[in-house]
Amino acid sequence: MGAAEPVVERENETEADVRERDDAKKEDSEVKDLEKGEVGFEERVIYSSSNANNDGVDDVHNNNHQEFQLSRFNRLNPTNPLRIVLNNNTRVAAPSPVQSQRSQPQSQSQSQSQPRSTPTPQQQQPVTLNSRKYTNRISLFLFILHMCLAVALACFLVFKGVQGLIQSSESMKRKEKRVLKYFLPQVEAATLMSIILAFTWQGAIRKWPTFMVHFILWCTFLMSLAAGILLVCLQMPPTDGLGVCFIAFAIGNGLYACWVSHRIKFCCKVFSLSLQPMSKFRDLNRPTYIMLGVGFVWISLWSLAVIGALNFYFPPLIIIALVLSLAWTTEVMRNVVNITVSRVIALYYLRGMQSSTQFCFLRALTRNLGSACLGSVFVPTIEALRVVARALNLLEGEDEFMFCCAHCCLRVMETIFRNGNSWAYVQIAAYGKGFVNASQDTWALFEKEEMEPVVDADITSSICFLTGVCSGSICVIVVAAWTYTVHRTFTATISLLTFFIGYLLTRIAMAVPHACVSCYYVCYAENPENRLFDKTIKDRQALLKSARDEIVPTPRVHRTRRS
């Protein structure tokens, strides 16, 4: 037995020597293969590491052997095919369970450091809140061109007016002096009165939103009715026609106030909630002050240009062109205020930021001015046609032709409204989108959150519109009585003009609460889980879905079969 032990030791030594010689041969051959750039290195490394679990001595030897091979591998040229293949992880032999457990942390670190070779879907670029591109450049160019022509025409007409006072005949001089005496003071007074009324309405809505919604609905009814009755009582054909229009509008306004009575409570609540962030921005009204100041100066120059047009060719056409220019300019001013306030309030809702009002105002005057110009042309037109289409839909009865026309017009206007609406100004201000894209994206948000019935039934825009009508009616009452006592023939013309000025300037100031309400709806649709919003809109949606809200259906005339 004692003699057998040395034999076993010698056999073990022989086997170890054999393994060492075999490993040395393999090492030499693998070094040659590495220099040649062959691909079989990785498989042999894994195979040798799997066989290294037989005993502790072999494990240590094979680990040293593997480290030597890896050191050889690290010396390879980066352009060597073997290293390229291994870096790309394209050929890997099936590892043993032990090797897979050991190589798992290493593979995870490699997967984190090295990009995957499999194609991954491209992620959408995050929407930036600081877009530097100019939106709707064609509209911006047209508006700037229009303003250059309007200023040049106004200056030229003022020159013609002064020339007429100096060099024209006595009859022309008397005519221009009469217009200056009995036309210009009334227009300037109406402009100042409109600015005062505009700030009065805005301040009252901020303090007492619930009361003012009811007050505006019925005060507009009374003021427009009073203006119409006053003009009819003047007993002149032009004032009679104008007075009938005011009375007809007052009747429609009263019917509308009764029809939307079930929506007033929700509108008051939205007004109260949406106006709360205004207290955090003390200078939020500064753009309104600037725009109304510029509006006063421009209307003064515009009035002198109207007087000068009387001493030039085709006075009616020139005055109509000046009126259209004034309407577009003041509407752009209103939308500039709207975009400025929308950006300040939207960034507060979306990011919790307190932005600089001055920076937002400069941005609205530069990068987003094209969208304001385009929206100023299309939004009033689209909304007016939409109201007409809805009126036709209400009035259609047994007439099949009227039925088809009403529904066709309504569907067309609904389609157009998706591509151009006043809700778009929020995304124009926040993300710098174009007018059409912003309209489509905003309406898609409403559809996603099932908010179309809620926003479609909103009466905020109607309240702002009626506020402008109320201011215009008050101006008509004051100016018509004044002009009738000093120069009767100008009564109808000046009354119509002062109503127009009062409406436009009041709408500029009312753009601030309108923008706050728009931001409340649009930002809620973008992130309903925002902590700044409560359950007001959710409760409204639940009421509409459960049919517990008193929604007035579209009246239809039932068809009777004739025997």
TrEMBL record:
Its main location: membrane. The keyword Membrane applies. It holds the Pfam family Choline_transpo. InterPro entries: Choline_transptr-like (IPR007603). The chain crosses the membrane at residues 140-159, 179-199, 211-235, 241-259, 288-307, 313-333, 463-484, 490-506. Residues 7-40 have a biased composition (Basic and acidic residues). Residues 95-127 have a biased composition (Low complexity). GO terms for molecular function: transmembrane transporter activity. It comes from the Eukaryota. Keywords: Membrane, Transmembrane, Transmembrane helix. Residues 1-40, 94-129 are annotated as: Disordered. It is found in: Cell membrane; Membrane. It is a multi-pass membrane protein. The keyword Transmembrane helix applies. GO terms for cellular component: plasma membrane. Choline transporter. Belongs to the CTL (choline transporter-like) family. PANTHER family: CHOLINE TRANSPORTER-LIKE (SLC FAMILY 44), CHOLINE TRANSPORTER-LIKE PROTEIN. This is Choline transporter-like protein. It comes from Lupinus luteus.
